Backbone:
């Protein structure tokens, strides 16, 4: 080995190899414990009294199927990775090769910085620099807090560049279902509208959920229903939050809630159906649907110096 690249120390019997997702930051409050990871700044685990509330992954595993990842500066897909902004045509790398889409943003494999770590909270940050297909400069921060209700996640984005930037955010947690068969899991999505898609999972239009297989407003076992579906026109409770619930005999009732910053939610059952990783259903709070960089649908524009902030969380149902 050269002096520039010295031989790294070999792990001893007493020291573990580095985790595939980098540093692991654990927080706890009462019965709740959560682990946030350096790679992607995402959520790896969330438990109550040792029982999983999210279907995460092991410290010795790579994150797969988007588990707990942060999706910025766009969630979901961009058709062919192409869009136009401020009169300039852009081409992003194709990351969903089978469908020729740019998928889930630019930060989910980035190395995030630890900003603050307290016993009950952890804050991570990342500066998103200009790169192929993206000309903007954003500062990103996410704080994970455990309190008496469970997990509260607050994300902020600030445009520290010189020009307006397009922006969207999504999170990708999987709510745990344990050993309960998918058909027997009950799902509640308080949405009156869903997005129809083509074979590339790109939007073709909106439709009311009334009379459709994706009407989950009152909650019901999934049966034969399988979802990779975006919903909007979400009914909010008196506190301004919408709430989706995944209920199973094995893992209990788990609720994901989100504030007014999130007019969209995506629900994905494919990982559980295909047996990929720990059994869970992805319930993804989003600011915009797929291909928003082209459609403009719910797309946020951050002017120089502008901030965006949104909060969501996960709680066991009462």
Residues:
């Amino acid at each position: 080995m050269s002096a520039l690249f010295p031989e790294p120390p070999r792990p001893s019997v007493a020291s573990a190899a580095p985790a595939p997702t980098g540093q692991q930051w654990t927080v706890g409050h009462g019965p709740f414990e959560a682990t946030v990871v350096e790679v992607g700044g995402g959520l790896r685990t969330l438990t109550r009294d040792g029982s999983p509330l999210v279907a995460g992954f092991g410290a010795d595993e790579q994150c797969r199927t988007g588990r707990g990842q942060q999706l910025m500066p766009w969630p979901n897909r961009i058709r062919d990775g192409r869009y136009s902004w401020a009169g300039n045509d852009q081409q992003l790398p194709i990351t969903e090769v089978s469908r020729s889409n740019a998928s889930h943003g630019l930060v989910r494999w980035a190395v995030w910085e630890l900003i603050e770590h307290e016993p009950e909270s952890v804050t991570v940050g990342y500066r998103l620099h200009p790169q192929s297909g993206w000309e903007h400069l954003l500062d990103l921060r996410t704080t994970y807090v455990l309190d008496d209700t469970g997990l509260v996640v607050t994300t902020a984005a600030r445009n520290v560049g010189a020009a307006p930037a397009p922006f969207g955010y999504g999170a990708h947690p999987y709510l745990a279902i344990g050993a309960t068969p998918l058909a027997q899991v009950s799902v509640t999505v308080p949405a009156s509208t869903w997005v129809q898609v083509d074979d590339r999972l790109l939007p073709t239009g909106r439709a009311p959920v009334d009379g459709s297989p994706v009407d989950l407003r009152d909650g019901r076992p999934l049966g034969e229903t399988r979802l990779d579906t975006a919903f909007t026109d979400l009914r909010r409770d008196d506190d301004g939050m919408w709430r989706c619930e995944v209920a199973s005999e094995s893992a209990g009732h788990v609720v994901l809630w989100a504030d007014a910053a999130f007019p969209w939610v995506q629900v994905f059952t494919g990982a559980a159906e295909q047996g990929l990783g720990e059994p869970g259903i992805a319930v993804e709070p989003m600011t915009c649907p797929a291909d928003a960089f082209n459609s403009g649908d719910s797309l946020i524009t951050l002017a120089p110096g502008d901030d965006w902030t949104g909060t969501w969380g996960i709680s066991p149902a009462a």
